[in-house]
């Protein structure tokens, strides 16, 4: 004898069976993005504090190490809270690629300092229609700049990069075989090169005003780190050391932008029939899109954008080069392999050029490995969900900060053999062709990836190729090990170090 079941209970059991069936079949997993999945797992994550969230638990010197430790415990997608701001941390390359391919993930979090101080301007901290339009403009400007040719048919941009690379090699050579600090040298030459590319202006080493601007940029990076908690608790800007740091940050930004505004005003009113820098093409784009460049709000946007382009490109190249040289000093065997390839392909009678890149696979692979090991932005730049976003087994709510833990991606032994070793061979296939695996993403991924990736890669190639073509790098004290501990910050910089550049015979 069967007992009739109530309709409500029958419906519940039927629905439960459907959910279980979906889970068993794997619907909503990383393979299909979960867009058709109507049941989502709760996000895992460590326990935080009331109000403060997880901020007190995160290493202020190397936050990526704390987040990586939690990723090993809670998996490739887990939740945190920064104060009252919800966040998810992604540490698997396929999940990061999936997330950043979705339009819902293209926002920027409304953080009080890093977003608020930009006043809704620029390109890095904005989203929506303004970001789409300005990013399109910047990419178009860079392409137009690359299309400019010299009388000999060479790219103007490539020629400019090569001239500045020659400058850094010449400055290395000034020191003979004595030890020297590479940091001020790299800072000046790379920043000067980017100033020429972005603003059409270069400066001498003894220009005190330009040196002051570089100091302001460095100061700004340090102050952003010092005021991180103000992002989540704006009231802290009025108390303790946060007050002084926040006021100094605003002051340094104002002074730097006044310097840039003078350049912009001069460039707006000069003849634009022969543009030669990003600023020239950008002004033309703004006119073409019927912006009133005399409007203070428009000029404010232009200054913020140009500062974003200059700062992000300079920092990426400077920091990656510093890490690359430190790793190469520790690995004379890799220096020898690069030098053998350079001598075989380029010879000793001329300098390497951009055109040699495809004929120098080991040198190119060394540059890629330097990018992987540097992990200059180990947490990526934070994204913000503009709407609910299905991802893997989870539903990421609207208004959630997304952190792409690029450090974990580049140090994951599941994707990289012996990830802590500097090993250029991992970027070469059996035929010694250069390959970039999908898990290599130093410039992030998707619609908000770094727009200057190509510029950074070829500049770093030329820098490393020229330096090792001319010199063998040595640590000052034989047998002393380089210090690979990073300086505190959200961009990872090596500690101050010195080296010797031993001139190679022709």
UniProtKB/TrEMBL annotation:
GO terms for molecular function: heme binding; iron ion binding; oxidoreductase activity, acting on paired donors, with incorporation or reduction of molecular oxygen, reduced flavin or flavoprotein as one donor, and incorporation of one atom of oxygen; steroid hydroxylase activity. GO terms for biological process: organic acid metabolic process; xenobiotic metabolic process. Keywords: Endoplasmic reticulum, Heme, Iron, Membrane, Metal-binding, Microsome, Monooxygenase, Oxidoreductase. Heme binds at residue 450. GO terms for cellular component: endoplasmic reticulum membrane. Its cofactor is heme. It is a peripheral membrane protein. Coiled coil: none annotated. Pfam families: p450. It is found in: Endoplasmic reticulum membrane; Microsome membrane. May be involved in the metabolism of insect hormones and in the breakdown of synthetic insecticides. Belongs to the cytochrome P450 family. This is Cytochrome P450 306A1 ortholog. The lineage of its organism: Eukaryota, Metazoa, Ecdysozoa, Arthropoda, Myriapoda. The gene is cyp306a1 ortholog.
